Amino acid sequence: EEFLLYQIAYYFMLLMIYSFIGWVYESVLCSITQKTLVNRGFLNGPICPIYGFGALSVILLLKDIQHNLIALFLASMVVTGVLEYLTSYLLEHFFHAKWWDYSDQPFQIEGRVCLLGVTVFGLMSVLLIRVVNPWICSRVDRISQGILYLLDSIFFVLGSCDFTVTVVHLLRMNTRLQEIQSAINAYKEEYRQNLARDMESLRRSLEAKWEERLEEKDRLRGLLEEKLQSGERWKLQWEARMDAFENSRFHSERIKKLLEAHKYQDRRILKAFPKMHSTTYREAFEKLKKHLDA
Predict the structure, then answer these.
(1) pLDDT tens digit sequence for 77-88
(2) Which residues pair with 97 in a beta bridge?
(3) Which SS3 state, helix, strand or coil, does residue 285 take?
């Protein structure tokens, strides 16, 4: 039992170390590509758990083939690809948002994983197994059992608090987005009804003139068809008209407060995941992003 406890503590320390290394890698890479400092990751703290779990998965599952470089590389691509896909799916399922999107990359699956990404992770995994992990383990082995337990306890408490704060914020953000989206939908419905009413009025007016001005029937027929078709084009023109939402009665003080709330956390997450988009509250999410950019 004591040995099992030590093993759990040992691998938890590796989880924290590789989560931190992953955070450094992601933050440096994103800071360079975005040309600004980026605190990359799901959590506020300097860890990316997906890298920690990915490293542990490769270490524990592929240790028997570590001497076969080709097999190790290919198996690592599969393991890390599956982990990234599942992480993307679960984040989308629980928080109604796609956090990253590889749709613009060749050989991608639903925008969740791409060939370039899993190839890089495969190469990193080979480096991890053959070089990095033996060196890391040799350093962790030097930590006394008592200190290891103490450090793990501190990391666990801090990580749990960070995870709780982040999840609560995301759930609250979705609640805010839902209310904002409801207001936008009400505005759209009123616009649609007004448009339908105007189209019907125009149709009746043109039909009345049709009988009076048969000599202009060709011109009137074209005009009638064009006006009636514009009722279908309103969806395509919607983005251009969405700015009018801010001047409508639906953009209430309540909606303004919802857009203003939790600015820091919203900015941090959107800066960390610039391709993030809501799968359920798309227009509300875009309004929030636009408000934060402003």
Answers:
(1) 999 999 999 999
(2) 278
(3) helix
The CA distance from 196 to 234, in Å, is 10
Tokens of 24: 């450094």
3-state secondary structure of 244: helix
**18/16 Cα distance (integer angstroms):** 6
Q: Which two tokens stand for residue 95?
A: 């928080």
Predicted TM-score (pTM) of this structure? 0.83
Distances (CA, A) of 256 to 35, 259, 263, 277, 284: 31, 5, 12, 20, 12
Residue type, 43: L
What pLDDT band is residue 18 in, cutting at 50, 70 and 90?
very high
- CB 74, CB 58: distance < 8 Å: no
Going by the DSSP 8-state scheme, the letter that residue 249 receives in this structure is: T
Evaluate whether 56 touches 79 at the Cβ level (below 8 Å): no
- pLDDT tens sequence across 212-270: 665 566 666 666 666 656 555 555 555 556 567 888 888 899 999 998 887 888 999 99
Both tokens of 124, joined, read 């990193």
Neighbours of 199 (CB within 10 A): 17
